Amino acid sequence: MNELARRMAIGSLLVGVIGSAIALLIDPRTWLLCYLAAFVGWSAIPIGALAVLHFSYLVRSRWTEEMHEPLMGASLTMPFTGFLLAPVLIGLPWLFPWISVEERHGALQAIYLVPWFFIVRSVAYFAIWTVLALWSRDAYGDVDRMMRAGSVGLIVYALAASFAGIDWIESLTPDFHSSIYGLLFLTFQLLAGFAFALFVVLLRGAPAWRYGEILLSILLLWAYLYAMQYIVIWAGDIPDEVVWYERRASHGWGVVLWVLVLCQFVIPFFAMLAERVRYGRGPLLIIAGATLMLRLVEAFWLALPGKDASGLVLLLAIPATVLAIAGAWGLAYDAVLQRMELSPRRRRDATITAS
Q1: Which residues, including other chains, have CB under 8 Å from residue 127's CB and lie 6 or more apart?
Q2: For the chain, does the N or the C end have fewer beta carbons within 10 angstroms?
Q3: What's the rounded Cα separation, in Å, for the pair 165 and 349?
Q4: What is the pLDDT of residues 293-332, one digit of tens each?
Q5: Which of 63, 22, 60, 69 has its CA nearest to residue 321?
Q6: How is the chain split into domains, by residue range?
């Protein structure tokens, strides 16, 4: 990160903290909801980067080598990213309705949706991801260790990330059930992690390689899972599940939904059918940057409608929480990059030239 970017991160943090303090005084509950959504959107970058890093260890090539530094750097911010969840854990009573025993439905929720257990799980997720990130860092350069780290890491990551999505977002509405929600959260994070690394390497002037094909594949998986969830729920006509969609398609949230559909899938999909876009550095840089911003849009679309968050305070709380977390995480990422030391020998041994 250059000096300009570092100053922008500091400025973002200061503005976000000041705005958050004002919003917190006006409406603490709304600020906490916005903070949770902003956290989910930004934390998807290091968590998703860890998954893409493990994948790159299994399919080593020139393009994976280009992405290694931003993927590894983002993954190693995991402990600090977990620290950013602290306000959510402190504010559990204002966020999650299942804090009240009466709001827990069934024997499983009575055991699973318990405050202390929620906190333990959240801490465990980041502990697991941190261990995986450190393992991946130490394995880099040794092909056999990279294969083991990538194979085991993807399995463990997928399990932890699926439950994290259910805990942090789906449990905001405990009467909603979707067996595909965990997979949706995985694609949410994969898009964020890959788009971040892609944006960084293209911004540095790296060639486009076949990045467009990979991004298009992840977008198709993301859209497919959302379509399947919608079709199954609407066909089943189960009131609680249908209401979940109705809340996210009314009171202005329908506009947000169409922004996601058009800007995250329809436009990029048809654009990347053209080779000059799919293999073009400039167009891919734009699509990657838009994908990162739309992860935040999706996070707010998932979290806020179910809690009936509204009012002018949102105009302050949303940008304030986004700027605060973005600035804090950006500084942590910069600190990690400054401490990363990759020897030329390990870098060379880990690279397999693309055929």
Answers
A1: 82
A2: C
A3: 36
A4: 999 999 999 999 866 666 778 899 999 999 999 999 999 9
A5: 22
A6: 3-341
